[in-house]
Design brief:
- The protein is of the alpha/beta class.
- Helices cover 36% and strands 23% of the residues.
- The strands form two sheets. Strands 1, 2, 3, 6, 7 and 8 form a six-stranded parallel sheet that branches.
- Helix 1 packs across helix 5.
- The chain is globular.
- The protein binds flavin mononucleotide.
- Flavin mononucleotide binds next to helix 1, strand 4 and strand 6.
């Protein structure tokens, strides 16, 4: 059975709600993912999983979440060939760099050899009921992309 980890950063809870809904989608499809706040893990841990889902809100002027910075630096010491991955995050369209942290993580995962199987999921601020349904769907589609 495939092992999937979701690692997220969330300051006001929006990206965490997305993480929970994605995890729910995976559970509905029969896989129990490990869900961790980025401050409770490190980049080496994700190398032990077949599927890696990273989530970050965007901060500053299109920056990665502060909490993600150490993890992001640690990613330089791992390689992810043969892994499948996806990225999500809550964003705010009043900023010019909409959800840029999602794009940053997609680029990094690809550089490390992972196959990013889904387009990054960007949700405006707090996920609505429909947005949460999209997140659950995202989880299910990710599982399908793993060939499970
Ligand atoms: N959202 C963007 O899409 N792009 C940005 O560049 C951006 N910069 C931000 C800078 C500041 C100081 C703050 C307070 C918010 C910014 N946001 C930006 C919006 C956050 O990503 C958004 O509020 C998000 O919902 C926070 O997610 P969280 O609840 O998981 O912490």
């Amino acid at each position: 059975m495939s092992k999937i980890i979701i690692v997220f950063a969330s300051m006001t809870g929006n990206t965490e709600e997305m993480a929970d809904a994605i995890a729910e989608g995976l559970k509905e499809a029969g896989i129990e993912p490990v869900v961790k706040n980025v401050i409770d893990t490190n980049a080496e841990e994700i190398t032990h999983y077949d599927g890696i889902i990273l989530g970050s809100y965007t901060w500053g002027d299109g920056d990665l979440a502060d909490d993600f910075l150490d993890f992001y630096d640690e990613m330089d010491d791992i390689q992810l060939d043969g892994k499948k991955a996806a990225v999500f995050g809550s964003c705010d369209s009043s900023y010019s760099e909409y959800g840029a942290a999602v794009d940053t993580l997609v680029t990094k995962l690809k550089e490390l050899g992972a196959e990013v199987t889904l387009e990054g999921l960007k949700i405006e601020l707090s996920p609505s009921k429909d947005d949460k349904a999209l997140c659950r769907q995202f989880g299910k589609q990710f599982l399908q992309s793993l060939g499970v």
